Structures are given as structure tokens and as C-alpha cells.
Amino acid sequence: MVPLPSNPSQQLEKGLEIFDSSIIWLIIGAIGIITASILFAYIVNRTLIKRLAKQMKMDRGIEFAVQKVTQYVVVGIGVYTAFAFVGLPVSAFAGVFALLSVGIGFGLQNITANFISGIILLIERPIKVGDRLTVGEVWGDVSRINLRTTIIQTPDNMSIIVPNSKILDDQIINWTFGDHRIRIKIPVGVAYGSDIRLVEKALGEAAEKHNLILKKPSPQVWLNEFADSSLNFELLVWIEKATERDQIISDVNKIIYKLFIDYNIEIPFPQRDLNIKQNDLLNINQSPDTTISEQQEQNEKNKWQ
Fold this sequence. Notes:
By secondary structure, the protein is an alpha+beta fold.
């Protein structure tokens, strides 16, 4: 028979102190493991991945995707190791996942959809860092792809945060996917009676004078519409980079304006014909202080009297 301790209260206090100190050290150790995994992922991305990217001449988007995947894998292993160090069994994770699944069913659908969409974007890479996108009315370059959101930097230096699910579900325009060359359309209107061949010549010269417009495919000039006040042409040219589109359009428009002046090609403006009945004109001449609208109202009153 095991003898009872002479002072049970002191033994209990001593056991609690040992128990408390061990728990504290376990928690500190777990935090240290997680912190070390984050630092290790940062070091790997800043040194190893950077060097590999330079040696292999890796695309910027591929480099970013590899860095993100490496970071998530290393930190995930660190978190799992920290839980194992504390002594939590795998069954504890099952309980956490069960609670998360209940939460997802009640309100985390969008977060989960964005999270899964972020993984798909990093793996399939329909877009990558540096691409020029148009999402709805947003136009800009992809600066970051996170697991939940994608950051688009506009030419006005504004950061637009777009949920990843919106990029996958909605129709977007990736101006730099595959072949970076794009064709831009520059509309131009000229007055009726203008020499069509001369207009085509002027637009062709404008395309030739800009050094950022590609020679092949060659520029084209189309006559698109007989509008109310103008003949509407369209100059179609190819450029190397989508990011230069707005500047090239502005430059070409300036060149076109100068060439139109040199060739005496008239740029039209909206024109309207005003028809005045003879009786109204006589009434206006008889009462010069009366406006046209006032005279018309007076004529209507006289008609019904």
C-alpha cells in the first residue's frame, strides 16, 4: 500500500506549478515554431526563389505564383508542427473543420469561393502579375494575387481590390494574355464632300509617323458610317504593349489633326437647320421685343379664341 504524503496541499501546489510552467513553455515553443516557419518562408522566397527566377529567366507571374505556393506550404507545415508540439491530436483538427463547415454553410460561402478561386488563379494562371486587365469598368495592371482578392493598380495609381471569384465568374479582358500585341481603333470624322482617298492617305501617314505602331500587321483604314454630319472613318493599328494604348491614341490624334490642316480636310461639327414660318417671321418683325417662344404662345392663344 502506497503511503499518503505528509502534506498533500503542498504536493498539489507543486504539481500545479510544474503543470502551469510546462503549458507556458509549450505555448511559447509553438509560437516560436510558427514564427520560424514564417521567417523561413520569407528567406526562401527572397533568396532561393529569386536566384532560381534569374537563372531560369522565369516570368514575373510564374515567380510570384511559386513564391505564394512556397509561403503557404512552409507556413502550413509550421502550423501543423506547432500543434503537434503542443500535443493536440489529429482528431482536434477534425473538430475544428466540423465547426468551420457549419460556419461555411451559414455565411462563409463567398469567402470560401474567393479562397478556392485564388488557388485556381495561382495554379491555372489565366491572369498573372503584370497583366493588363479590364474588369467591368476597372482598367489597370495586376499588382498582387492573394488567396482571396486580386489587387489591380490603375493608371491613376489607385488600387482596386477585386474578389477572386468575380474574376473567374465574370467576363474579363486580359490584354496581355498570350500575345502581348493588341489592335486599337481610332475613330475619325470628316465633313461630307471630303476626298475619301485623301483622307485615307492622311490616316495612313499618321500611322507611319508614330514609331510605336507596328508595320506588320499593317495599319488599315475603314469607312464605317454615313453619319448625320460626318463621314466616320476608323484607323486600325497594332501596338506592342497594351499599357501604351492611351498614350499612342493621343499621339496619333495629334498627328491626324495636323495632317488634316495640311491637306485642308475639314473636321465637321454638328449642324442643325432652323425653319421659321412666314407668319411667325412677320409677327416677330412687328414686335421686336417679343421672343420666338412668347410669340408662339400668343399665336396658340389667338387660335383658340
